[in-house]
Amino acid sequence: MPADTMRFGFGKNWENYIRQHFSEERVEISRKHLLDFLQLPNLEGKYFLDVGCGSGLHSLAALRAGAARIVSFDFDPNAVRTTARLKAYAGNPSHWTVITGSILDDAFLKTIEPADIVYSWGVLHHTGEMWRAVENSVKLMKNDGLLYIALYTDDPYFGHPKQYWVEVKKKYNRAGWLGRKRMELWYFWEFYLNRRLTALPELIRQSREYKKSRGMAMYTNAVDWLGGWPFEFASVKEVQQFGVGKLGLTLANLGTGQANAEYLFKAH
User: CATH homologous superfamily of domain 3-154+232-266?
Assistant: First the structure.
């Protein structure tokens, strides 16, 4: 299929994640990571907007952190349904709203009230218009609000430049079910096991420990990485210049060292 018509089924992947891996322990890990990066003790009195809510795990974490209001939206209907299931699991709190919408849909965005905290982790670089998506997210902030986003950096990943992974993603999305499974096996064999079966115990250990990273699961994230299309990336410097220089924000926190860099911008 043409590259401009390909779109990975992110929602289906997150639906599988919740079905296979959801636990209160993962919610707590997510809640702690969220508050630590926001540099807040809790979200009491805060309106939390989850842009591209995916699995819904982080919206639930915001609920557990005491958010006074939560709005979660996603372009993918599977993600919306999965998030709604977590809302139901939490007792269908009236102050949590789950809806379908796109960060690129200007008409939809006009229906969203600006929030104290706009959160979008690993989403905006998959829209096909990353910089516009970032700018639209800023428009959803209150005058004194916070923007917490994570975007792919342009650093080499497993020693390969991002353009290499663009081609991998295109191949993965063009493949059938069996072809995708073969690529997943190749990915783990090549990059996690380094073509050594003796590394399998270490991979199993890493898989068990992986939930400590925001409550995520290794296989789910591997599929997300291989399939994630559309796909864009930017250097930390580019994002800082865009957020501070063009959009007039202040950078309040920065987390690097992974494929995604985390940014906390503050409006002023």
Answer: Vaccinia Virus protein VP39 (3.40.50.150)
